[in-house]
TrEMBL record:
Name this polypeptide is given: Urea ABC transporter ATP-binding subunit UrtE
Key word S-adenosyl-L-methionine present: no
Listed NCBIfam families: urea_trans_UrtE
SMART domains: AAA
Record organism: Steroidobacter gossypii
Family: Belongs to the ABC transporter superfamily.
PANTHER family cross-referenced by the UniProt entry: HIGH-AFFINITY BRANCHED-CHAIN AMINO ACID TRANSPORT ATP-BINDING PROTEIN, HIGH-AFFINITY BRANCHED-CHAIN AMINO ACID TRANSPORT ATP-BINDING PROTEIN LIVF
InterPro entries on file: AAA+_ATPase, ABC_transporter-like_ATP-bd, ABC_transptr_urea_ATP-bd_UrtE, BCAA_Transport_ATP-bd_LivF, P-loop_NTPase
Recorded GO MF terms: ATP binding
Every ABC transporter domain range: 2-230
Gene field: urtE
Keywords tagged on the record: Amino-acid transport, ATP-binding, Nucleotide-binding, Transport
Length: 230
């Protein structure tokens, strides 16, 4: 579904991503892992077209390289950024409607499926984004990305700063989206038990290079010790 070949990225003079090759297969849930500062967020931002990079990126047979960020979203790639980036002064409904406005085939109403997945958003439609708890904001950020009805959903640390019981709920939602709604998922996640629970595949970045990849049962304690523990 998404093929990345020899992707390189620089921040000014700093070479951050080195010859990254990565295949994301349709229907998989792939966890991108690595210690802090290894380039995970940078790679997601390159995929979304929010940062320039060199190399090849092909999504469903289409070359993403020359497409602006909004065109990539329009192709069905949903993105939930790190820190969620919801609009705190806007209501929950307005936040969701922003997702709606990015759709290629315009819809007037927020799809009911969003409220089935996140009943709390329906109850809080008129509340301001900034008044929601961290977990509710994360649900809103995922809901806003789902309004686009993506086929590939990219999530950057969806459990960061969220209470353990809500972390479990977010895991349930990702599993449902992946297994029942057949959405392909690519997520950055630092919590190992969470990654092992929801993901089917892993990729590890170390200093901007892919150093390991495989199916989740192949994520051995040795790999964890070598590349993930601090
Ligand atoms: N705007 C920027 N300008 C210059 N360097 C940056 C910028 N953003 C990130 N970097 C550097 O790029 C490298 C990769 O950062 P990135 O945020 O992609 O890592 P990460 O693996 O997502 O880490 P984290 O888990 O802490 O979010 C780091 O060394 C970081 O300092």
């Amino acid at each position: 579904m998404l093929e990345i070949r020899r992707l390189n990225q620089f921040y000014g003079g700093s070479h951050i991503l080195w010859d990254v090759d990565m295949n994301i297969t349709a229907g998989s849930c792939t966890c991108l892992m690595g210690r802090n500062g290894m380039g995970k967020t940078t790679l997601l931002r390159c995929i979304m077209g929010l940062l320039p990079s060199s190399g090849e990126m092909v999504y469903d047979g289409q070359d993403l390289g020359r497409l602006a960020a909004d065109r990539r979203a329009g192709l069905g790639i949903g993105y939930v950024p790190q820190g969620r980036e919801i609009f705190s002064q806007l209501t929950v409904e307005e936040n969701l409607r922003i997702g709606l406005s990015a759709r290629r085939n315009k819809l007037r109403d927020i799809p009911e499926q969003i409220f089935e997945l996140f009943p709390v958003l329906k109850k809080m439609l008129r509340r301001r984004g900034g008044d929601l708890s961290g977990g509710q904001q994360q649900q809103l950020a995922i809901g806003r990305a789902l309004v686009l009805e993506p086929r590939l959903l990219i999530l950057d640390e969806p459990t960061e700063g969220i209470q353990p019981n809500i972390v479990h709920e977010i895991g349930d939602i990702i599993l449902r989206l992946n297994k029942e709604a057949n959405l392909t998922v690519l997520l950055v996640e630092q919590k190992l038990p969470f990654a092992r629970r929801v993901a089917s595949e892993f990729r590890i970045l170390d200093k901007g290079r892919v150093v390991a990849s495989g199916k989740i049962p192949q994520l051995t304690d040795e790999l964890v010790r070598q590349h993930l523990t601090v």
